[in-house]
Specification:
Blueprint lengths: L14 E3 L1 E6 L5 E6 L5 E3 L16
Antiparallel strand pairs: 1-4, 2-3
Length: about 60
């Protein structure tokens, strides 16, 4: 995964749809801010994952 903390102001690692911008709160934490009246989203395709083997742990 690239830039999971939304550190890049342009969000270049993310595929954006609609009105999407990086937002920084008063404590300096960054997030993606989705605004406007139309649907908006951010996403990434993650490659190279392999399935786990064995029994998953209990919840």
């Amino acid at each position: 995964m690239k830039d999971p903390g939304f550190n890049d102001a342009e969000l270049t690692a993310w595929t954006k749809t609609g009105t999407v911008a990086r937002d920084t709160d008063d404590q300096g934490r960054t997030s993606a801010k989705l605004t406007g009246t139309a649907a908006a989203s951010v996403g990434q395709r993650i490659a190279g994952l392999t399935p786990a083997s064995g029994t998953p742990p209990p919840p």
